[in-house]
Amino acid sequence: MTDASRFAAPHEHVFLGQDHHRNERRTWAVIAITTAMMVIEITAGTVFGSMALVADGWHMATHAAALLIAALAYRFARRRADDRRFTFGTGKLGDLAGFGSAVILAVIALLIGWESFQRLVNPVAISFGQAIAVAVIGLIVNLGCAWLLRDDHGHDHSHKHTHEHGHGHRDNNLRAAYLHVLADALTSVLAIIALVVGSQSGWLWMDPLMGIVGGLVIARWSWGLIRDSGRGLLDYVPEDEDLPEEIREAIEISGDRIVDLHVWQLGPGHHGATLSIVSDAPQDVSTYRARLAHIHDLSHLTIEVTRPG
């Protein structure tokens, strides 16, 4: 006995996050702001001789490119959401974009570290007052962009089931954009610290040292994003994801047992599942669907029911 309703009529496979449109609009806004600030910081850093400021400006340029990846991914996923050639929709395109952005973030960390090392070996004069002023402006802009890209929806999605599926609701595309902006804010903070200390003590080496510290922190963020988005692309179920256990608890009653179960993420807040159930007294598929109705994360479900042997 299989789920015949799957073949009765066509059904949509739109598994975009519920904040997809909002996140897309905010990403485009942040791209415009980041690009403008990028030009200001590169110019000011070159004129005033601050490596931290130049590094901040140049890696803002690569962040702008990464943010463009995020924005285009949102746009493509939205426009092609109804394209049946995408078997399970375009919801996971955000994971793909997030993975690509994470790789760019790793490259940025390496470039910042290398350029800062070069400045440690060959220090240059710095116009501290002007550089500090531009760095402060950059920090304000970055914090504003981070506020725009914050995931204020959190993990409270008004689901009625008792368990949380934090990883399932995470939008890795938005997270990637947020981390790029947060990396900008971090380098601005470190630049300000280095410039203030350098202006008071004359320690020119503080500026490139802060660049190295920033590169290490950004590399760590990059690895976390590569790991999480890569897991999503490979349909990995995180250790703290309890959805498979919820399904088993709901189905395995009255002698029914699951002999094959596959659960994967279709998009932010959406999961798919295929179940093979063995029962001495098989029920109609609608009965098993009713048992799972309280799990709102299940957006696509296929059920097979057989007798033992």
Which secondary structure elements does this structure contain, and how are they paired or packed?
Blueprint: H1 5-8, H2 20-48, H3 51-79, H4 93-121, H5 128-148, H6 166-169, H7 172-201, H8 206-233, H9 243-251, E1 257-267, E2 270-278, H10 285-291, E3 298-306
Parallel strand pairs: 2-3
Antiparallel strand pairs: 1-2
Helix pairs in contact: 2-3, 2-5, 3-4, 3-7, 4-7, 4-8, 5-7, 7-8
By CATH's scheme, which homologous superfamily of the largest domain applies?
A: Cation efflux protein transmembrane domain
- Described by the principal axes of the CA atoms, the overall outline is elongated
Poorly predicted runs are 3-10, 153-165
> What number is the mean pLDDT?
80
Structural class: mainly alpha
Strand order of the largest sheet: 1-2-3
Strand percentage: 5-15%
Distance between the termini: 14 Å
Instruction: Report Rg.
Output: 25 Å
At the first level of CATH, the class of the largest domain is Mainly Alpha
Individual helix count: 10
- Number of beta strands: 3
The biggest beta sheet reads:
3 strands, mixed
CATH architecture of the largest domain: Up-down Bundle
Helical residues, percent = 55-70%
Number of discrete domains: 2
Please name the CATH topology of the largest domain.
Alpha-lytic protease prodomain-like
